[in-house]
Amino acid sequence: MARPFRNVRALCVAGTSATALMWGVTPAMAQDAADQTTGEDATVVDEIVVTGFRSSLQQALNVKRREAGAVDAILAEDIADFPDQNLAEAIQRLPGVTIERVNGQGTTISVRGLGADFTRTRINGLEAQAASGGNRNRSFDFSMFASELFNSIKVRKTQSAEIEEGSLGSTVDLQTGRPLDFANSGFNSALSVQASYNDLSEKTVPRTAGLLSWSNDSKTFGILGSIAYSERSPILESFNTTRWQKGDPTQAYGVGQNFGGCVPCTTEAQRTELLNAFYPRIPRYTFGNTQEDRLGMTGALQWRPSDRTEVVLDLLWSRLNSELESPNVEAWAFSRAAVNNVIVRDYAIDAGKNALSYGVFDNMLVRSENGFTRNESTFAQASLNVRHDFTDRLRGNMKLGLNKSEARTPTNVTYAFEQAGVNGYTIDFRGNDRLPMIDYGFDITSGKDFTLIQGTRSTSGGDFDNNVFAGALEYDWTPSITFKAGGEYRTYGFSTWGVARAQTATAGADRITGVDALGKIVSIDGKIGVPAGSDLSFIVPDISKINDFLSVYDDPLVPNRSEREVDETDKGVFVQADFNTEVANMTVRGNVGVRYAKTEVESKGWQTISLPGGGNAYDYVTAYNDYDDVLPSFNLAIEPRDDLVIRLGAAKVMSRPTLGDLTPGGGVSPTTRTVSYGNPLLDPFRATNYDLSVEWYFQNEGLLAAAVFYKDIDSFITSVTESIVWSDLGLPDELLQGAARPTDVFQVTRKLNGEGGSLHGLEIQYQQPFTFLPGLWSNFGFIGNFTYVDSEVDYGAAGKNRLTGQSKNTFNTTLYYEDGPFQARVSAAYRSGYLMSFPGGNGNSEEGMNATTYVDASMSYDISDSMTISLEGINLTDEYNDRYVDETNRISDYRHTGREIAIGLRWKY
């Protein structure tokens, strides 16, 4: 019965020799570490030695192979050598993983079609929540962290009882460096510097990272610290429409969303055609200027007095600051009641999109806006992990930790100039349905006839807190069976708040006409490909000048009743049996277990009460809920041959409701017996997952694998309106203001656990070095994966559709070359279109994003054993993000941020 254990032990050795960061553990050092770990029990698998990037690929395969469940990994050399700006962009290389991009960089991830709210992230074994800017949900913002701070990433796609609940899709494990990861005792250090140039902003910004580690000669104690700093300065050039809307031919001109008149509409058919067609709500070209700086630090104290005991204190701190100025000039009339005064002088309609493709308009309202937003976000975590072997058969571990994420927007200012009665405004999509020609019909560089009509200022923030205590024991019942049992106690807190200027419309001396002295000229330089004839330069409010001009700028900001809170207490216990044996000369290993989870929720938010005598009252209300889950799981890995692994997995899983849906805040009208609010009584998303995969490790560094998966989602949270007795809502009776009774029936619009749905898919992976080819061709290799996902969920009254955020087809490919000191690789990441909202707003069937393909490349040369020079290219094709509305693919936002070219130097000692 010893054969299975020897195989797994050898794989574990290779898998755990990952480097401490991108820096310094060479393959020789990794082999030393493996020797120290395994001693006489080590099993020699092959004598082939690979280095650098190929070495890390092999280690990642070893991690995948030894696991009982479905796991994919990316290790330090991969993280360092892929030209990625942050962790999200590194993780997207793994099969089934897609990312959301904001301002040109990856922020959140989806795994196998399930979005960021359904994915749990752990840092050094501790569940974490990282948020930036306006993030107020459960998703983890990976842009908070530089990839250099971590030495391994694992994505667990199947569940086992010992893994904490909370994920419907996957659990992502991030690991920072530790001092005893290095094979050599004493000091180990590294430094990297980069200069990155953006061809759109034409700016060069720095990126640097450093590490210093020390351990004593006996390698029983060590200390490590690392730091990473980077800046970004992209330009955000785009055209956007803020959705499309249409009129109603059954109503008169000048009513609802109908134009005021139409000169060429001489027949009823023409009038009907025009008013039935969609037109853009706020068409505009934008030219955003972003400045970001990110600073991250890690620390680790590691004590290993013997092979039986280890104590590790891990520390992580990160800060991300960003500033965005967003000037634009726009046709404001289309989105407001002013559309009722607009006269259509000429028009053309795209019948395929049922949308205006060309129009000339009189009596337009044109607005010039400029906004400035500063976001300041921090994340801090401390975790203590203790492991001790009480006997040769009994082991225990404990973790204790806390993390806090603060997302602040200390400054959010917007100013607007406006000019009414504009004639001759022209927009023409006929040459390009993504980039129209726009002629405003007057000199938009002059502020002579513009009026300063609006000034907003606000401050807001959100806090996320996690506190965790967990422990577990494991006992080797026999050489083939290990029993595990443990539990955890976790408190989670979320709160958000905001204050704003009470008066936003200017008045008195602040409402000035003739604003040249308060504006500045902004030009779009044509890199977005604006059609000839368009106005490319325009006057916009100058933020600093108007700050000084406005008499009300320093007026106190007042609470805007955006406060809401969610506090959760999560308790969990589990039992699990791991097995590793031989059946019919085949290795059979895996685990079976069950987890019990209890969740208690307290939610708070503002209720707006319509008073019987008119006016409103406000009450900050609290609601309570609790639920429990029993979650069995099973993972089986069968090895019919030494190079073949067949995996089966099944588990019940749960994911807690999104934070916005849990608020009891909303509106109550006792007199009309109506209520609209979130639902603090929501149960979690629940599903049953099934997985099957076959993995063929046909050579060193080689893999051909296929996996199929199916998720039966029991319920999906939807918005519904239904008749409910007040006393069944869980809201306090004082909200009724004496105008209704607790026994009265109310029409309630709220979130509800609705019907469920299903998700299924296929993953294919292929990885191989081309060592079978002659000459220099043998230095090439390939990594690729393809994922297909389809789903159907019930959106209530809107009907059924696929999940938001789910792309049907994705693939990642990398062609690499490695020959001694020289390495190079080119990578492509494709993601097919996906829904962002269903149904869409303003009568559109949906909102979504069209397909994207990002191409990156990098090369490096080892000048010496300790010095490496590198060249990287990010988004080499300057890919556009193309957001659409409606199934007819009307343009919503067409945006690009330019290419990044970086040259760098890495040193290690």
Question: What radius of gyration results from the CA coordinates?
Answer: 30 Å
Count of helices? 7
Q: Low-confidence segments, ≥5 residues, pLDDT <50?
A: 1-49, 78-82
Structural class: mainly beta
State the end-to-end CA separation: 44 Å
The major pleated sheet works out as:
34 strands, mixed
Shape: globular
Strand segment tally: 50
Mean pLDDT: 87
- The residue fraction in helices comes out at under 10%
- Provide the β-strand percentage band: over 45%
Features of this protein?
909 residues, mainly beta, 34-stranded mixed beta sheet, 50 strands
Describe what this molecule looks like in 3D.
There is one protein chain. This protein has 909 residues and is mainly beta. Helices cover 7% and strands 56% of the residues. α1 (3-15) runs antiparallel to α2 (27-38). β18 and β19 (355-362) form a beta hairpin. 46% of the residues are buried. Mean pLDDT is 87; it is low at 1-49 and 78-82. The chain is built from 7 helices and 50 strands.
List the helices and strands and how they pair.
Blueprint: H1 3-15, H2 27-38, H3 52-66, E1 71-75, H4 76-81, H5 87-91, E2 97-102, E3 105-111, E4 119-123, E5 126-127, E6 150-156, E7 170-176, E8 186-198, E9 203-215, E10 221-232, E11 235-240, E12 244-246, E13 261-262, H6 268-276, E14 278-280, E15 284-306, E16 309-325, E17 328-331, E18 343-350, E19 355-362, E20 364-389, E21 394-422, E22 425-428, E23 437-439, E24 451-478, E25 481-500, E26 519-523, E27 537-541, H7 543-549, E28 558-559, E29 564-583, E30 586-610, E31 616-641, E32 644-655, E33 666-669, E34 674-677, E35 685-699, E36 702-713, E37 717-725, E38 745-753, E39 757-769, E40 780-794, E41 800-801, E42 809-819, E43 822-831, E44 834-837, E45 847-849, E46 852-862, E47 867-874, E48 881-885, E49 890-896, E50 900-908
Parallel strand pairs: 4-7, 13-18, 30-33, 34-38
Antiparallel strand pairs: 1-6, 2-3, 4-5, 6-7, 8-9, 8-50, 9-10, 10-15, 11-15, 11-49, 12-14, 15-16, 15-17, 16-20, 17-20, 18-19, 19-22, 20-21, 21-24, 22-23, 24-25, 25-28, 25-29, 26-27, 29-30, 30-31, 31-32, 32-35, 33-34, 35-36, 36-39, 37-38, 39-40, 40-41, 40-42, 42-43, 43-46, 44-45, 45-48, 46-47, ...
